[in-house]
Structure formats: structure tokens, C-alpha cells
From TrEMBL:
The keyword Cell membrane applies. It comes from the Bacteria. The chain crosses the membrane at residues 37-57, 64-86, 92-110, 144-161, 191-217, 226-249, 269-286. This is Simple sugar transport system permease protein. It is found in: Cell membrane. GO terms for molecular function: transmembrane transporter activity. PANTHER family: ABC TRANSPORTER PERMEASE PROTEIN, SUGAR ABC TRANSPORTER INTEGRAL MEMBRANE PROTEIN-RELATED. Keywords: Cell membrane, Membrane, Sugar transport, Transmembrane, Transmembrane helix, Transport. It is a multi-pass membrane protein. The keyword Signal does not apply.
Amino acid sequence: MIDTALILAILVSALRTATPLILAALGELVVEKAGCVNLGVEGMMLVGAVAGFAIGLSTGNFTLAFIAGAIAGMLLSLIFGVLVLYFQVNQYAAGLALTILGGGASAFWGQAWQGQNMRGLQPVEVPFLADLPVLGTVFSRLDLVVYFALAATIAVALILVRTRVGLVLRAVGENHDSAHALGFSVVRVRFAAIAFGGAFAGMGGAYLSCVITPLWIEGMTAGRGWIAVALVVFATWKPARLVLGAWLFGLVSVMQIHGQGLGVAVPSHVLAMLPYLVTILVLVLISRDATRIRLSAPGCLGKPFRPAA
């Protein structure tokens, strides 16, 4: 017999687990739409996690915690921006260095907070949604950041397609030379996109340390930054597909935890890697059309901008 309460609990946990991934991947999507590839998402999430936890624990204010996480992630991303936009450093190498820097810095700064925990963010009831039959139980157990992540996804999708800001951003990513010739500042647009991506990755990290597991653990992102980068590519730079991929990761993550709790006869390390394996496998299957990926990818993705003298 189907246990409805268990299914609803799994759905709630899956939506919450997917939220930091949505935030980080959404930020990376904007960065890549502008023509840059920042592989430092994992590092930015880690510094956002430790900064958010430190401020949240010290003040008890979750708003300040998420702002701190966003600022920490953004500051780290600006290092990447300076390196690749002003010093013309290889974007992939700079991103990898950023991940290493973020991991080391978060481990060092987080020593003072190791082993401490805090009260998690409480759910909110959204009018009308909480009154829905069956699913109202799910909506009444979600926190504000889950709704913020979904609202941000819709906002980014609309801005990219329907506004001048989105048009300029996409123009810079598609052909930076033409955008420069039209009078747009390629460096400024990309710098702003990189800062946006860093802020959202930092918020994703803060959500991990303040809500998912309200404590600081070294390396607690556990590869989610890399999954976020993969999501953007395999979702062919479409926000809706990105969210679906994140939800899939969240669902499998929660189910493997329940599997361990139920004593499934599978080694725990195999269950732990299952969310990553299933997510990547499904994303590969739905993006087998290499031509469509090439057509969807920004034309100047990963290419340095060198304005003519």
C-alpha cells in the first residue's frame, strides 16, 4: 500500500535538496550566456556556505546569512572576472583555480565553526497554494528560498528573452566583436554576469549550510558545483530544463537516503553516488543531439575578448 505521507515527505525533501543546485546553475547559465565559462562554481558555493553559516549563527538572521553568502560568492567570482577579462587568463584554468581557492579558503575560515549547528529556516505558507488538495501539504512545508529559486528562474528566462538587458547579454555571448562594434561594453556586461553568477552560487552554498544541513562541514557541497555546471550544458542553456535536472538530482538524492535508512542491500557508497550518476545519465540521454547543443551554445562561449586597437 502506498504511503502518501512518505511520498509527500520525499517530494518536500527533493524540492529543498534541488534548491541550491537551481541557484548555482542559474547563476552559471547567465555567465555562460554572456560568453564565459566559470568552472569555479564549487568554490563559490563553499565560501558562500561558510560565510552564510557564520553570519546566520552569529546573528540568527537568515536574510543576513543569505546576503553574506551571496557577497562571499560574488567576491570570489570577481577574482575570476579580473583574471579572464583584464589579464586574458584561460577561463577553464582560472575556474579550476577558483574551485581550489574556494575549497581551501572555506576550510581555513570554517575551522572556527566546525561542529556547531543552528536552527534551520522555517517553512512558510503561501496563500492559495497551501489550500490545494494533497499538494497543499507539500507547499506548506517549503521555505521562502525554494520559492525564490523558482521565481528567479522564471525572471531570468523572461529577462533573457523579452528585455533589452537580456538581448545585450545574449548578443555579447553570441558575437562579442559585433556587440563591441555596436557600442556595447563587452567587459562590463561579462563582469556583471560573472558577479551575478557568483552571488547565486554563494546563495546556493548558504542554503546548504543554513537549511539543508544547518551546520558547517568542510567540503559540504560534495560536487554540487560541478553538477550545476553540467546542468547548464546538458540543459542546452534553457532555464526550464535546468530546473527539471535539479529536481531529478534532488529526488534521487532523497530516495538514496531513504534507501539507506530502510537497509537496502546495496553498499552505502554506491547509493551515495547514485544521484550524480542518474542525473548525468539522464541529461546525456536527453541531450544526445550534438547539433542542437552546438546551435544552442553561445557562439563566443569560452573565447577571450580582445578588442581591436
